[in-house]
Amino acid sequence: MKKLSVLSRTLACAAVAGMGLSAPAHAQAIWQKPYMGWSSFSLQATTISGYGNGWLTEWQMQVQSAELKATLQPYGYNYFNIDSGWAGGFDGYGRPSANTSTFPDGIPWIANIVHGNGQKLGVYWVPGVGSDVYNANPPIYGTPYHIQDIVAQPLATGDAFGSWHLKIDFTKPGAQEYINSVINQFAAWGVDFLKLDGVSPGSDQTLSYCDNRPDVQAYQTAIQQCGRPMWLTISWRISDAYIPFWQTYSNARRIDDDIDAYSSTLTNWKQTNLRFGDAANWAPWAGAHGYNNNYSMGSGWNDLDSIDVGNGSMDGLTNNERQTAITFWAQQCSPLYTGDDLYHLDSYGVSLLTNPFIIAMDQAGNVATQIQSGNSQVWSTDNGDGTRTVGLYNLGSGSATVSVNWSAIGLSGNQQVHDVWANTDIVANGGYSASLASHACRLIKVSTPHIISLDFVGSGTAMGSSENAGVVGAASWNNASGQSGSGLGLVDSSGASSGASAAWSASAVYATGVTDTAGSKRMMKGYLDTYSGATSTVTVSGLPSYYTTHGYDVYVYSDGSNGGATRVYKYAIGPSNIQINDAVNTDFSGAFTQASSSAGNYARFSALSGSSFTLSATPVSSTDAYLRAPINGIQIVGH
Predict the structure, then answer these.
(1) Phi, psi of 489, deg, nearest 5
(2) Which residues, in sequence order, are CB contacts of 189 under 8 Å at separation 6+?
(3) Helix (H, G, I), strand (E, B), or coil: what is residue 114?
(4) Cβ-count burial of 104 within 10 angstroms (0-12 exposed, 13-18 middle, 19+ buried)?
(5) What is the spatial distance between Cα 126 and Cα 234, in angstroms, rounded to a whole number?
(6) From residue 595, how far is each of 451, 544, 569, 604, 616 by CA, in Å?
(7) Which of 380, 388, 394 is nearest to 331 (CA)?
(8) Where would I find the Alpha galactosidase C-terminal domain in this sequence (predicted)?
(9) Residue in 38, 36, 52, 35 with CA at minimum distance from that of residue 266
(10) Which residues, including other chains, have CB under 8 Å from residue 11's CB and lie 6 or more apart?
(11) Which domains does the chain carry?
(12) Apex 350 CA angle, 551 and 121, nearest 5
């Protein structure tokens, strides 16, 4: 794909203005987020038994609409798009009509079903006029003109698919009125979305007589006058030489070839991998901001095509490739619409498509830009709040280490790194590296550390400010001495006051037999203790707005002196509780193990958002007579 300089695109923008084309009002005003939903085409294009040619029917659409409502719609997937194959002729005014053998009740009937399920209906169409319509020469609705009055002479191809659709001459009276009549009919049927396919320049065509820019403008103009909001996507492999024009007159543009493998799988890695090469050229020009941050010039999204990751046995992708695909689609803020059979989604596919971070990243509209190309790619999103979301991708055929330096994304020093898919946190200095299998990825959120760490000294030794400890390695631990206390002002990992404070109450304090060395072993040595089945509590209050806005996790560290017994402890914050099994004669060895009703030495409470919380520690059982529930320390880790 030809790469254009900023100057070239600016000149293209000026050319749009020079053509006397005005930007439509709601092409950019309403559609501030990429849409989410489902499309029929992948199942039409595959050779998997039971699908392919003939699969697209009224009955199948009812089934898929019902399944969309039951599975993905609660997460925002609400567009239901019927691709090519629904049309079967034309009416007395040359407008498309439904195929009566496959859609005997017509598109309005399907629209009622779809709308009744709380979804928006999309249909497919192409530029130009069908040659059969031209030969019949019907009148254009509401005008004195006929179809042959608006077709270009001599006859020319009307779109990238060939001569079966003829080119419209939009300088002729009746031409815009014809497109208006088509869109008005779609609107009357209840259509909410239009995919205009075979658009050139693009669709592997650059021939001057197949320039569909006037068609795209005409369709958007028709949408503006129809009285019904309607999304317009143009397809496929649209030329990036005219980005300002596409931004002005469409809501999204397909930037690459079909995702479909046209084989016994819906897609494959080859088709998926194509997007990484072409997205770099398009990424700076996508988003709700509009061209050059000028809303009058419209906006638009880069459409990477269907995200077919919902069924591992049908998709043609490994689990690593499925995760890589959904991650990249979301980083690009592509419209998220799957082409899978919604009746046969597997659990892993559902977890990918409904991951809340992935959906939020896609819908936020902050499109990632390429930091590093080649087989080891890095893409970064500036989230607008001082944080970055970074995707590290191994596109090669073997395992590789993919790295990013903080300086490349405008950061430096220590940064908190949240691994989105693994749901883990670390603090990394200067940069980050991931060892990735072939076609795997790592998605991380990078932010200034927002970590508050509290060590219960017990009968151990207080921690120094420079000591680094915990699962999320951090310094500046706050030392809480004694079995009870209140009003302890808490600093964060930078040593600055957080504004939060802590209070705690326990029956006693104690220490394990672990050797006292700086860092995590010192933090895990002393602890708050319980006697006779009592409950210990720790309350943290006054958490600052970053934590309440972005949410946070609480890590609770637990290791008691239990040389003669195996004990079970229960920790609770609000309605959530986690049990930890502490095996006999096991002290902290230096390795952290997360517990969830299992052996381990820490529990993690996720996705909290209150400005305060109370942690309780209660004994559950012991193989001797001494019921205990230690609290060695806690960490509050902002997202």
Answers:
(1) -70, 135
(2) 106, 107, 108, 111, 121
(3) helix
(4) exposed
(5) 9
(6) 21, 28, 11, 8, 16
(7) 380
(8) 374-446
(9) 52
(10) none
(11) 6-367 (3.20.20.70), 372-447 (2.60.40.1180), 451-638 (2.60.120)
(12) 100
Short-list 610, 611, 615, CA closest to 635: 615
Q: Are 520 and 500 in contact (CB under 8 A)?
A: no
pTM (global) more than 0.85: yes
Q: What pLDDT, on the 0 to 100 scale, is given for residue 296?
A: 40
326: three-class secondary structure by DSSP:
helix
**Long-range contacts of residues 223-229, Cβ cutoff 8 Å, at least 24 apart:** 223/24, 223/27, 223/183, 223/194, 224/24, 224/25, 224/26, 224/27, 225/180, 225/183, 226/180, 226/183, 226/184, 226/186, 226/187, 227/187, 228/187, 228/191, 228/192, 229/26, 229/30, 229/192
- How many CB atoms within 10 Å of residue 374? 10
User: What is the pLDDT, as a whole number, of residue 163?
Assistant: 81
Residues in the chain, pLDDT under 70: 1-30, 205-209, 289-299
Entry field: residues in the chain: 639
Report the alpha-carbon distance of residue 97 to residue 16 in Å, rounded: 34
Task: Quote the pLDDT of residue 32.
Answer: 85
What is the pLDDT, as a whole number, of residue 138? 99
In the predicted model, what is the mean pLDDT of the chain? Answer: 93
Residue 578: C-alpha distances to residues 379, 516, 602, 619 (Å): 37, 28, 10, 12
Please report the pLDDT score of residue 536 as a whole number: 98
Q: Can you point out the beta strands (E) in 215-345? A: 231-234, 252-254, 301-303, 336-338
Taking a C-beta distance cutoff of 8 angstroms, is the pair 180, 222 a contact? yes
CA–CA distance, 353 with 38 (Å, rounded to integer)? 12
Q: Could you tell me whether strands 388-394 and 441-447 are parallel, antiparallel, or unpaired per DSSP bridges? A: antiparallel
Q: DSSP character for 201?
A: S
